[in-house]
Design a protein that fits this description.
alpha/beta; 9-stranded mixed β-sheet; single chain; binds S-adenosyl-L-homocysteine; two-stranded antiparallel sheet; 33% helix
Length: 373
């Protein structure tokens, strides 16, 4: 745990508002205008972008190619502090790290970094809270506070990438290989900023962090117009859709936005996404005991998916993670195994998601951004 005490308390009292201006929110032209307003040559904009996206630093001391006297004003104007770590919890012998961040206006979000033998994945937040109110999700219980800016999303990536490079995560110096938009918030409800962040995550340095698009996943509750819009952007990122039930009666209970876009509409949009991008879609299904884990629901899901084609989708059952006050629990092991076996029998590739971070409330659906646990 880290805490910056009084400074954070003062920030916490400030009203929710716009984050400070940041290089990662600006177009290359706007960055040039900012450095010129400080009396600096245009090429400083590219130098700063290189420090940010390639060297992963905002520290004036690292910027030895910039005259010492102008480093601080340039950093203050274009690379202000957006995220301050409030608390860091670790699990899996340090290889899973959940960080609670305080934003400049006092709002809070969480991100989770998970290191595996051959990859390191950051699960990041796209909004403070979430408006969609899925019954079993901790983030949804608190409602939406505000959207994150593009730079606030990207700053989560920069800090994680830097921690790996610096060897701060056990396993020696490493590289951030995967980014999943599966933390707090609904990325497609913060579309423009999510899209700009996606572009910068996958663009090569110094325009972006250079993470392979095929290692980037955007997870959505199923906002159909957003799925179609994303498909048309020409970015080969993977889409995940949070289905959780194959029938509208149950899905409407679990995922209220089902009343607007139902199971068939969401699956049709997911299939269109596959057709346009060629990227296999992931269907997320949090398994809840005696709620959505019956064999008939596995069969129904299998039929719905195969009816739309083969090879376009795989299912990711997620053992339900405990959320305070929730009336649901995870399915037992036999039920889960039967559910998986039935989907596979329909020819649908199915892999159960690991529950990394559940002991630090850092797993799917457990991010609430609170300091009171
Ligand atoms: N809003 C987006 C991004 C969140 S991703 C979305 O809905 O997809 C987080 C995933 O974890 C979603 O599939 C979500 O439905 C799921 N989830 C939420 N609460 C959960 C819980 N308690 N246990 C397991 N998975 C949960």
């Amino acid at each position: 745990m880290t805490s910056t005490g009084a400074a954070l308390d003062r920030q916490a009292a400030r009203p929710r508002g716009r984050p400070p201006r940041h290089l990662a929110d600006l177009t290359p032209d706007a960055r040039v205008r900012e450095v010129q307003a400080l009396g600096q040559p245009a090429f400083r904009a590219r130098q700063l972008a290189t420090h940010y996206f390639a060297h992963l630093t905002c520290d004036p001391a690292d910027m030895t190619d910039v005259p010492a006297a102008v480093r601080a004003p340039l950093v203050a104007a274009l690379l202000p502090t957006l995220l301050t770590p409030v608390r860091r919890l670790t699990a899996d012998r340090g290889r899973t790290v959940k960080t609670l961040w305080r934003l400049a206006d006092g709002a809070a979000v969480e991100s989770v970094l998970m290191r595996y033998p051959r990859r390191a994945t950051l699960c990041l937040s796209s909004q403070v809270g979430c408006a969609l109110a899925c019954a079993f999700c901790a983030t949804g219980q608190r409602g939406l506070v505000r959207n994150l800016s593009t730079a606030e999303i990207l700053e989560q990536v920069r800090v994680a990438a830097r921690a790996l490079v610096d060897g701060d995560v056990p396993g020696g110096p490493g590289r951030l290989s995967n980014v999943v938009f599966m933390g707090m918030g609904e990325p497609l409800a913060n579309y423009a900023r999510t899209l700009a962040a996606l572009r910068a995550v996958i663009a090569p340095a110094p325009t972006g962090f250079g993470i392979s698009a095929r290692n980037v996943v955007v997870s959505t509750v199923g906002l159909v117009p957003g799925i179609d819009r994303l498909a048309a952007e020409g970015l080969p990122v993977t889409l995940a859709v949070s289905l959780h039930a194959p029938d509208d009666a149950l899905r409407s209970e679990l995922v209220p936005v089902n009343a607007r876009w139902d199971v068939a509409q969401v699956l049709d949009a997911a299939h269109r996404y596959f057709e346009v991008t060629g990227r296999r879609v992931s269907v997320e299904y949090a398994l809840m005991r005696d709620v959505n884990d019956q064999p008939w629901r596995a069969d129904r899901l299998g039929r719905l998916l195969t009816a739309r084609g083969s090879g376009w989708v795989h299912v990711n059952p997620i053992p339900l993670n405990p959320v305070p006050g929730s009336r649901w629990t995870a399915s037992d092991a036999d039920t889960q195994a039967e559910f998986v076996a039935r989907l596979r029998a329909h020819g649908v590739p199915t892999t159960v998601r690991d529950t990394r971070g559940s002991d630090i409330d850092g797993a799917c659906g457990q991010l609430a951004g609170g300091e009171d646990e």
